[in-house]
Design goal:
The protein is α+β, with helices and mostly antiparallel strands. The protein is 23% helix and 39% strand. It is globular. Pfam families: Glyoxalase_4 (PF13669).
């Protein structure tokens, strides 16, 4: 793992939350994207070298909708940039982590992604991200 790629925050209303974060950072979101396979719309903000992803559910069965129902708005995951996501998944499985996606899938922001179950990472959902070349 090379660095924190972004922090994902689950929100109920993307439009309202975008205004909040625009005021917070003094700049608008630089990117908006729908990830239909996950049932979310996203927006991305930069603050110095740090990236924040806001995630809002587009249907009631999406993982974000379920998260919001159970826990409310807040930090959903921490994503880490990796050079080789397939190798990193194999390494983490050998270390005993519970991998939710043994085969990486396309995520937002031109990334291949896979997640580690929070039960194996002290309650934090971890996302692995590799830029699609």
């Amino acid at each position: 793992m090379r660095k924190i790629e972004h922090i994902g925050i689950a929100v109920k209303d993307l439009e309202v939350s975008n205004l909040v974060f625009e005021k917070l950072f003094g700049a608008p979101a630089y990117k908006f994207e729908a990830v239909e396979s996950e049932g979310v719309t996203t927006s991305f903000f930069m603050n110095g070298p740090n990236k924040i992803e806001l995630l809002a559910a587009t249907n009631p069965d999406s993982p974000i909708a379920k998260f919001l129902e159970k826990k409310g708005e807040g930090i959903h995951h921490i994503a880490f940039d990796v050079e080789d996501i397939v190798a990193e998944i194999a390494r983490l499985k050998m270390e005993g982590f519970v991998v939710l996606n043994e085969i990486p899938k396309k995520g937002a922001d031109n990334k291949l992604v896979a997640f580690l179950h929070p039960k194996s990472t002290n309650g934090v959902l971890i996302e692995l991200c590799q830029e699609i070349k």
